[in-house]
Every structure is written in C-alpha cells, then in structure tokens.
Amino acid sequence: MIRTLTFTTLFPNGVQPIHGVFVATRLAHLLATGKVETRVVAPVPWFPSRQPRFGTYARLASIPAREERAGVPIHHPRYPVIPKVGMSLAPLLLYWGARPTVASLLRQGFDFDVIDAHYFYPDGVAAVMLGKHFGKPVVITARGTDVNHIPEYAIPRRWIRWAAREAAGLVAVAQALKDFLVALDVPSARIRVLRNGVDLDAFRPGDRVALRRKHGLEGPVVLSAGHLIPRKGHDIAIAALSLLPGVSLVIAGDGPERAALERQARDLGLASRVRFLGQILPAALAEIYAAADILVLASSHEGWPNVLLEAMACGTPVVASRVDGSPEVVTEAAAGLLVDERSGPAFAAAIARLFAAPPEREATRAYAERFSWEATTEGQLALFAQIVAATANGAGAAKIAEQVSSATANARSRAP
C-alpha cells in the first residue's frame, strides 16, 4: 500500500462543492484501485469573519478545519493571502500555513511515502518546501495556468523552475503543458503526460426531450460552461450569439464577471436569449450538457479542458478555441470543431457550421469513451512505486529524480 499526502488548494469542500473537482475525481479513481491510501491537505485562505456582508471571504471562513469526502479525511489549514504582493510570497505563506497540519498527521501515525501536489504555483512550490522540511519526495502535477500563464511573472517563474528541479516526479495533464515546462528549461525526460479522463457514468446521454422540457430549453441551444472570468471567453460566446438568429445561449458557472456579462447581453439586445444558471453541481450540469446542442469553450488558456470531454460524453459536440490542451481533446469531426481566432464572428461561423452538419450524438459519445481514467491511474501508480522504491533504497532527492526520469524515458520508448 502506497501512502500519499494529497496537497492542493484546488479541492472541493462543504462551501465550494465543485472547487477543484477534477483533482478529487482523479484521486477517486486512484483510490478505487485499493493500492493507495491518502490524506488530503487542502489549504484555504484565512479570513477573520463569517459575516455575510464580506461575501466570498465570509464563505471561505465558513469552511470547516476538517471534513471527509468518500471516507477520505480532508484537512483545511488556513494561510494568509496578501493583496498585491501576495503572488510572490504565496508559496512561503502556503508552506507556513500547512506545515503544522502535516506535522500533526505524521505525529498521529500517517507516515506518508510521497507528497502528491496539484497545480505548480504556489501549491507545487510549497509542497517541495514541505518535502524538504519533512524529508519526503514530491510529485507535482501541472494543470493549466500554473505553467502556461503564471511563469510570465519573473518571481513565480524562478520559484517554478526551482520546484521542478527539486521534485522527484513531474506530471502534466496535456502535452501542451509539458511543452511549456520544457520551455522553462525543465528536461523533457523528467515529465510524464497523464491526461485527465472523463467519468463516463456521471456524464452520459439522456432523454433529450425530457431534459429540455425539465430545464426549459427550446430551439437551438448553445452552452458555455466555466468560471465567469475573462480567460474563459463567455463574452465571446455572447458576441457570437448576436450573429446567430434564433439560437439561445445558456451560461453555467459563477464568478466576478457575471454583472459585466449580463450587461453585455442587455447592450446587444440579447437578454431574452442568454440565460445565466449560476454555479450548478455536476449531476445537474450533466443534464444541461445532454440537453444542449453544442458546447462552446472560447478560452484564452486551457490545460486539459474537462468540460469538453464531459459534454462529449453526454453526446454533445463542441466548438473550442485552438489553445494549449484543447487540440489534444478535439481531434476528430465527431468531437466538434476548433476555432483559430477568439472572436464573436469566428465562433459564430463555427457554431453555424456545426449546426448545419452535426455529428451523430452516438458518435460523439463513442469518441469520449476513448478517454477513460485507466491509463492515467496506471501511470500514477507506476510513478509512485518508482519513487517509493528509490526512497527505500536510500536514494537522495537528485538520485530519485534521475531514476524516475530514466524510467519515464524507458516507458516512452516502449510505447506503441
């Protein structure tokens, strides 16, 4: 049995049930093998008051210090977030906030073998600091903006390079993210690509007539799903709608851009054709996927965009911007279309094209079925086992990284 300490600020909690759900999903498939035991340390920003007038910050203060998910203990130590200067200090603040909790777990007898960290900055950097303090090897998974955007800033870039050098193992959820790490002078042989899968039971086609009636959807319907932030491109989806008469747009998600997006829809005379659902749970989102005709993802950056596979698993084709990991998800006509230009007219043209000649929904579902979690889970188990074996043989951090790199290269040479 391999014992891991899962370390990430991206993990669901009682107040934010879909926050980092992709990390929890990958972990659930790993634990289902029965070969791994874990404790989750998912730090949350500290805030002193639960007064409702403080909005989001008050909600963070309401997150319990400890909870469980599917029988897995989850700890939520607090760490300070400092405006403006906080980005450069974030790894240290996260490390200091989490260290007492990790020490407590060790005292209680959970002597873990490896720290499994998700998201490179600040989480992965802080995890390496914890690994050095407690004498434990660290694996870091790169997931998106942590390597395709944050390294644009000088201090975080230096931290990321340091953590990559010191980690025992490195994982990227898409080849595009591996390429970003290589551009930061991380040796290619050290990085394994273990892409996310999709839960084919949770996301599946349904009775479209009944689902459309249930959710009040009529006529051609396009869905845009994700956090309401500029990077996700919901404004482009709204702009595209102005060129698509008779089409409705449903936006699933919440975030700081909601008021601006609602204003944009009103200004373009589209308020009656744009519907904001707010944050919805995965089960309800699966129904919306299945009821919609097309999913649109107009992001400027993506790691491995889970929403694309979730929609496809429900039989719904996609129109996505050709950025980062998206071309690795959309490779055939059954999946949908990629758009080279992030603009309303370009997306409107692609949406119209897909409406004119949509793939069979059965074919879209069959395409998604290729993306199970099995290969990713096997890759994780192999990586952890190599690190545990090297540690047991008394290898230091540099030697562990060397041995794991060699094993990664050998596995790649044997791949078909």
Would you kindly provide a brief summary of this structure?
The protein is α/β, with parallel strands linked by helices. The protein has two domains: 2-197 and 375-414, 3-Layer(aba) Sandwich (Rossmann fold), CATH 3.40.50; 208-368, Glycogen Phosphorylase B (Rossmann fold), CATH 3.40.50. The protein is built from 17 helices and 16 strands.
What does this structure look like?
- The protein is α/β, with parallel strands linked by helices.
- The protein has helices at residues 21-31, 56-61, 86-107, 120-134, 145-148, 154-166, 175-183, 208-214, 234-241, 258-267, 282-291, 306-313, 326-329, 344-356, 361-368, 374-392, 397-414, and strands spanning 2-7, 36-41, 44-45, 66-69, 72-75, 78-79, 114-118, 138-142, 169-172, 191-193, 221-225, 248-252, 274-278, 294-297, 318-321, 336-339.
- The strands form three sheets. Strands 4-5-2-1-7-8-9-10 form an eight-stranded mixed sheet, with helices on both faces. The chain has a six-stranded parallel sheet with strand order 13-12-11-14-15-16, with helices on both faces.
- Helix 8 (208-214) crosses helix 11 and helix 16 packs antiparallel against helix 17 (397-414).
- The mean pLDDT is 90.
